[in-house]
Amino acid sequence: MNNTISKYYPLIPVLGAYLIMFLIGFIMPGMWQMVALLAFYCALGQSWNIFMGMTGYVDFGYVTFIALGTYGMSLGISYFSQYEWLGVGIIAIGFIFALFLASLSALLEAFIALRLRGAYFAIACIGINEGLRYFIEGAKIWGGSEGIIFFGALTQALGRDTVNQLTSFWADFSVFIIAALAAFLNMYYMRSKIGYALTAVREDEDAAKVMGINTNKYKTIAFLTSGWLGAGVGAMAWGLKLGYVYPGDVFVIHYTVECIVVVLLGGAGTLLGPVVGGLIYGLSKYWLAVIMPGFQLLIFAPIIIIIIVAAPEGVVGLMKRRLKGTKLEMFIE
Amino acid sequence: MFMSLLKLENITKRFGGLVAVDKVSLEIQAGELIGIVGPNGSGKTTLFNVISGVYPPEEGKVIFEGKDITRLPAYKRAPLGLGRTFQIPRPFSSASVRENVAIGAMFGTLSGKVSVDDSLEIADRYIELVGIKAHKDKESGTLTPVEKKMMEIARALAMKPKLLLMDEAMAGMNPKDIDSMVQFIKRIKEEEGIAIVSMVEHIMRAVVGLAERVVVMNFGAKLVDAGTEEALTDPRVVEVYLGHPPDESKWKSEIWKK
């Protein structure tokens, strides 16, 4: 029994970090926006890492899930806000829409793209992302390029005060919850058959098949989980918080690149990595934008290059190596 | 009715114009120890790949315990009881030795019946059996080639197979290691009660000590399938290896000297 619990010790620093971030934002005035931004990066990194870290497949089209999550929330609210008796339930409906759209896209992508490997997989994912964007704009579905603006409908249905609270606190708070959930799922997968199967897939997919591992099944599980979490973040941090969605705003590869940077900085395939990476990336982006607006990328790019060269396994990878054999080892994964 | 463990019927596998395996039929009974011998490029590994489901054959059937598995994907064959090792070891490098072997237990014939913890226990047992206990928690990528081979055998055994295909288990070993490997393979065959097909390119020392029956392949076709002594002294086999009809008495004494 003791053994079972101690297997989950690496969750402690991760959840601890999220709790501290939340408390700082909650108690210290004026910090909430920054903490929300950090939570956003941590949550995305953690979600993306479930698939990339465990399988070794680099999903360049990950932003598709975030975008579809945003669309799910927007559609849910704009269709159902006319039913007054639903109350805040429309947000739950929006969230379910988000998960549904993400599932559809994940299964479709899994069917098409997961048969490919390496660069081909990455390119296929970018293609699906761009294709979806132009399909929405060109076929004029879901408002086409004009997008969906549902802030008014939301205010009408729930009242100004509730909406204010939702967008300024609950949307960000739920990102924390999703980040914690992502960490928990990642840990659970690592310790279960899924984790072992995906390790085999990552190291040698053909050998894994001969060992009796249904590689497609396990890859799809990780892909779907990762997609759901991404859609959840999109639904809350972009959909609910902003009250509108434009295809040109959400299907942007730039956000996938941010996920990659966060994960590589912290350490791919590690549990704590996305948190550390998210903090480093989010904080530097935030402060650089304050100190010298417009120059942040110019400064940030070399920093990333230095870290990647000096610590290719990421900060947490380096920490893990340093702590090997010490008592702290069991807390870092 | 008497049923063989594995039955190959007229297996043909082509790569473009090259016929890698040419109408090979073979029957393997439960608990048998068979050596597959043949020069480089004679289709041994291709045959193994067809049996373990890496690719389907163009013609012929693979029948395992009476069930046609010719079109079955590789990952569905392992749980039926087909285990294998690779010519060049293919460890899951970033995972520890223990985790590697546990993966075998998890997805082999015990698939769905054992928990992760059970699998790790099974792994410990086989790691000890193959004698690499000292390296249990090492990253498998850091092992020496021989240790990697032993780990692969442990991983395949942890799958609890009915038939174990060993691809060049003894390549690159010195005579002393080969002898102990031969003893080891015989022992696990008895202890685990499994059929073993061991593939050997040219180390006759290994074949002679090991197999009860030898299948000799040449240019993708089955040349001889007989008892070890008979097969290895067959003039056709000798010709494959030496390139000319031999002085029979000399050849025989050479082999059996040991």
Structure description:
- The complex is a heterodimer of chains A (333) and B (258).
- With 333 residues, chain A is mainly α.
- Chain A has a single domain, classed as ABC transporter involved in vitamin B12 uptake, BtuC, CATH 1.10.3470.
- Chain A has a two-stranded antiparallel sheet.
- In chain A, helix 4 crosses helix 11, helix 8 runs antiparallel to helix 11 and helix 13 packs across helix 14.
- Chain A is globular and about 60 Å long.
- The mean pLDDT of chain A is 89.
- By secondary structure, chain B is α/β, with parallel strands linked by helices.
- Chain B has 2 domains: 177 residues, P-loop containing nucleotide triphosphate hydrolases (Rossmann fold, 3-Layer(aba) Sandwich); 70 residues, no CATH class.
- Chain B is 39% helix and 24% strand.
- Chain B contains 10 helices and 10 strands.
- In chain B, helix 3 crosses helix 4 and helix 3 packs parallel to helix 5.
- Chain B is globular.
- Classes of the chains: A mainly alpha (333), B alpha/beta (258).
SSE map:
The complex is a heterodimer of chains A (333) and B (258).
Chain A: H1 2-6, H2 11-27, H3 32-55, H4 63-80, H5 89-112, H6 118-138, E1 148-149, H7 151-158, H8 160-191, H9 193-203, H10 205-210, H11 215-242, E2 244-245, H12 247-250, H13 253-266, H14 273-291, H15 296-310, H16 314-323
Antiparallel strand pairs in A: 1-2
Helix pairs in contact in A: 2-3, 2-8, 3-8, 3-11, 3-13, 3-14, 4-5, 4-11, 5-11, 7-8, 8-9, 8-11, 9-11, 13-14, 13-16, 14-15
Chain B: E1 6-15, E2 18-28, E3 33-37, H1 44-52, E4 59-64, E5 67-68, H2 74-77, E6 82-84, H3 97-107, H4 116-129, H5 145-158, E7 163-167, H6 175-192, E8 195-200, H7 204-210, E9 213-218, E10 221-227, H8 228-233, H9 235-242, H10 248-257
Parallel strand pairs in B: 3-8, 3-9, 6-7, 7-8
Antiparallel strand pairs in B: 1-2, 1-4, 4-5, 9-10
Helix pairs in contact in B: 3-4, 3-5, 4-5, 6-7
